[in-house]
Structures are given as C-alpha cells and as structure tokens.
Amino acid sequence: MYVTGPNQVFALDPRTGHEIWHYSRPRTPDLVSDPSLGTNRGVAILGEHIFLVTDNAHLVALHRVTGRPVWEVVMVDEPQRYGGTMAPLVIKDMVVAGVSGGDWGIRGFLSAYKAATGERVWRHWTIPAKGDPGFETWKGTAVTTGGGATWQTGSYDPETDTLYWATGNPWPNSDDRERGGDNLFADCVLALDPATGKLKWYYQFTPHDVHDWDATEPNVLVNTTFRGQDRKLLLHADRNGFFYVLDRTNGQLLLGEKFVRRLTWASGIGADGRPIRIPERDVSCPDHATNWHATAFSPVTRLYYVMATEKCNVKLSPGSWKTERPRVDPATRYLRALDIETGKIMWEIPQAGPVDGKRDAGVLGTAAGILFYGDASGYFVAVDERDGKTLWRVPLNATIKTSPMTFASGGQQFIALAVGSNIVCFGL
User: Fold this and answer.
1) What is the pLDDT of residue 328?
2) pLDDT tens column, 31-81
3) Mean pLDDT value of segment 111-124
4) How far apart are CA 8 and CA 423, in angstroms?
5) Contact (CB, 8 A) for 182 and 204
C-alpha cells in the first residue's frame, strides 16, 4: 500500500501497516495555496515504478520495491505560481499529470510523459493562446494567466480510447473586468485523444464563472440504460449546484438538474447546454455545492451518491453602509442519492461536523450494496445503498477528510482510509 504526505511516499505492508520504505524530500519554500500546505492526493503505479507529483510540480518516478528515484522531470516551463497536489494517471505506457495554482494566476495545462524515461509526449494547454480555438471567448488581458488548473486526476475510457479531464476556475476568481466572455476552457470537462492530447470535445459547466466553481469534481464513466437506451455516460455533480449526465462519446447533454435546494444564480440548464442565468442578489447560493472528493454509482440501484453542501455566500460591494447583513441559513451537508434519469434526490443523510469545504470526505460504493464514508465529526459509517439505512458506525476520534478505498490481500477484503496522520484499516 502506498500513502502520500507532503513530498513523501510511504510503502506499507497492507495487512500489518508495517513501513517497508519511505521516500521524502524537502518542502519547497514560497509556494501558495494548497501546495504550501503539503496537500497531495496520491501516486500512480505502472510495472516497477510509482509516480508522484511534488509540491512544486515536478513528476518523479520511484522504484516500487525500494523507493529509489528513477527519473524526475520539471513539468512547468514558465515562472508562474504553479504547484502540484494531484495523483497522476497511467494510460498504457504513459503518465499524465496536471498542475494547481489556478487561484493565483497561471496558464493551466496537462502533460503526458513516457513512463519508462520521463520524456514528454504532449502538452495540452487549458487556456488558449492567440490564434487557438477558444481565444475569442476571452475579452481583456486576463487570458495570459487565466487559470484553468488541472489539479484533479482524470478518467480514461479504453472502450472509446478517450481521456477525460476536468479544469478549474478562470482567474481572477471574481474580478472579471479583464476577462469578459465564456473563458474557455476553464470549468470544463475535456475529452482528449490520449496519444496526442488533441481535443475531441468539451463541455463547459459554468461559462464566465465568477464564483470559484472549479469543475474538478469527479467525472464518473458509466455504461447503463438511460431512458430506454444503452448509453455510455459521464456523470458529474458540479460545484455550481447542478448534476449533469453527458453522452461521453460526443459531450451531448442528457440531463442537467440542481442537486442542492438553494440555487440562486440560474433557473436551470437550457436545451443548448448553457445555464439559464438569473440576476443574483446579496445572498448567492451555492457557495460550493460539492468538491473534489469521491462519488459513487450503483448499477443495481442506478443511483449516484454525492456529498452535497447547502451553503450560501453574502456578496459585499461598495456603496452605502448597511446596518444589517442579509440573513443566511447555517451551512449543512448531506450524503445524497440521485436518480440519474431525473436528478431527483431519492434519499439523503444529514452529516455532522464543520462545513467548510476542507473537511469533506467522499464515498465508496461496493458490489455488496454497501456505501462507506467518513464524516467531519470523526465517524466512519456504512449504509445500505438502497435507502441510506445505517448498518454500522465507528468513532475514529479525528476529522476525516479522505475517501475510503478497498483492496484484497491474502484472500481477505479490507477497507482503508486516512484519519489525521494515521491509516485505519478494517477487515471484512
């Protein structure tokens, strides 16, 4: 089992937790945002190598058995505020990795490297340069460092040989005076040819985003029946409050319905796939309807499971003094089960603990029909995927910010998750 920390990788015996080896390098000074905090979302494995993105956006290959460095490449070429927090993705004989820093002014990109040597195969820029498709959707000077970070690991579909990757918010986040237009390809899911990095299609969830609604929530690839037809689907619950079902072969929108109860910026998603915007007032909802943590789909119930946050913002602007701020209900979080054909909430479970976006943990679905998740109050919980009925819950006495994972070893199934600075493992 491989576990990451700030610029660290630990190789553990999965049955005992015993440390086999430990790779570590110094933290990089003068970084900003999550990289400065040491955030790292994991490694990728191919053959005898494992692959790590460092806090300063280097891609490192380590020997899987010894932890010895094999090669290292610098992913960035420009002196912008790039960072690295993501887990790479292995596709065939390549390793694909992206960058963070979209809240601080970067030009986002995604790159693929030969797994054996680290040689770069291709780079795909998420913010276009002059003359590139999409450049016309930027009005002003912000396009040079327009954001579009790629800090969440993508998904690969071998059936269609397509790489799906989400992009983050445009920059500046809320000051749009120098970035009129839709701001492609921020807040998108990109469908790419994995051999070349060329764009097959895209879908933009929030054109001209002024709320910091990164589209870096999971894109779940599902083969199932949708309204009587067998379809290859992409399921996505976005930070903007809408749940989307796309045909992943061409990007066609099949469903766009809100999955939070308070949503003030749009009345729905139109037939053209664009949000139908409505004027916003002092209170703006949602703040973030969900985040990057894992979601799940059950082919049995045909429900999509997501942690949803009901939280609003109060917009402050220059003008006359107001003695009272607008009333905003306290933030709440729910585990929700969504019908993929209608978007309807079929059941929900209120969550305990603080609601601030940094303490959100995802869910794990299993073939046995059990959903596992941890919450910010420190409980690890198992529920029935059909109705949300609690099967058991265990106090772990620490805030849980990670999604569970499952593995088999020696003929036994295990569930593991990170809790604070520890790994907790349950045998099934």
Assistant:
1) 79
2) 998 999 999 999 999 999 999 999 999 999 999 999 999 999 999 998 889
3) 99
4) 15
5) yes
pLDDT category of residue 83 using cuts at 50, 70 and 90:
very high
Predicted pLDDT at 281: 85
Residue that is written with structure tokens 């010894």 in the block? 66
CA distance 143 to 146: 4
Cβ-based neighbours of 187, under 8 Å, separated by 6 or more? 167, 168, 169, 170, 204, 205, 206, 207, 209, 213, 214, 215
In three-state secondary structure terms, 89 is strand
Q: Could you state, in order of their start, the residue ranges of all structural domains in the chain?
A: 1-216
Helices within 81-200 (DSSP H only)? none
The tokens for 306 are 């997501």
Per-residue DSSP letters for 352-384? -S--SSSS---EEE-TTSEEEEE-TTSEEEEEE
As beta bridge partners, residue 384 has 370
Entry pTM: 0.96
Give per-residue pLDDT as tens, 290-322: 999 999 999 999 999 999 999 998 876 665 555
Q: Which helix (H) or strand (E) holds 34?
A: helix 33-37
At 334, the amino acid letter reads Y
Question: Is the sign of the CA dihedral 384, 387, 391, 394 positive or negative?
Answer: positive
For domain 1-216, give the CATH superfamily. Quinoprotein alcohol dehydrogenase-like superfamily (2.140.10.10)
Residue 28 per-residue DSSP state = P
- Give the tokens for residue 48: 């005898």
- Catalytic residue check, 230: no
34, 212, 214, 375: which is the annotated catalytic residue? 212
Token match 């305990």: residue?
A: 352
Give 298's DSSP letter: -
Task: Work out the pLDDT band at 282, boundaries 50, 70, 90.
Answer: confident
The residue assigned the tokens 């933009």 is 204
- Secondary structure class of 425 (helix, strand, coil): strand
Residue type, 70: V
Arithmetic mean of pLDDT, 366-395 = 95
Radius of gyration of the chain (CA): 21
Query: Cα–Cα distance between 176 and 168 in angstroms, integer?
Result: 16
pLDDT of 160 > 80? The answer is: yes
Distance CA 69, CA 321 (A): 59
